[in-house]
Amino acid sequence: MRLQVEDVDVRPANEVPFDDVLTVFGERGYPARCLCQRFKVTGWLWRDTVVEERVEMARVSTGCDDPDATETSGLVAYVDGEPAGWVAVEPRTAYPKLFSPQFHVPWRGRHEDRDDPSVWAVTCFCVRPGFRGRGLTYVLAEAAVEHARTNGASAVEGYGMLVEPGQDVTWGELFVGPAQVLAAAGFERVSHPTKRRVVMRRQL
Predict the structure, then answer these.
(1) Number of domains the chain is built from
(2) Which domain covers residue 70, as residue numbers?
């Protein structure tokens, strides 16, 4: 059954236990190894860090177990009381890799102030096995927009993938979210830098 907004409790990560974030990422596969640090590291994710370092980086950036924290790196979705999904959303300046020469895709054909802290970015979705295929990513995208708006963002952007019906896309590529999910949350296309990647933005 497709989940509706009222079926999901979405909370800032600093208001939940870190163990719940780790539960969403799981113990195997890309999410469990990356821990949403793909755009956080300044070097190469797999070469310059190890899992233990990424766990600690995630612990610090989420601010979990601290409801009074002034910042957090994402939101956690609960379905029937179970941690089920994650979305990373922060000021764009919180993602060093977006500004690295190694990752120039988002900037092709764009001319703007890259250091504007009022522009936020949605960079990662993760849905726990057992909760996939029920539309949770759509709920998370909407929640990310509202979280950014509540915290003073002027705009929020994402780097979605274009996925054709029946096309096989690995989770390691699709963590940024399908373009149709961002479109459903009101994001509009800004640029189309590669065949399957689109930069999308919602003004707030």
Answers:
(1) 1
(2) 5-203
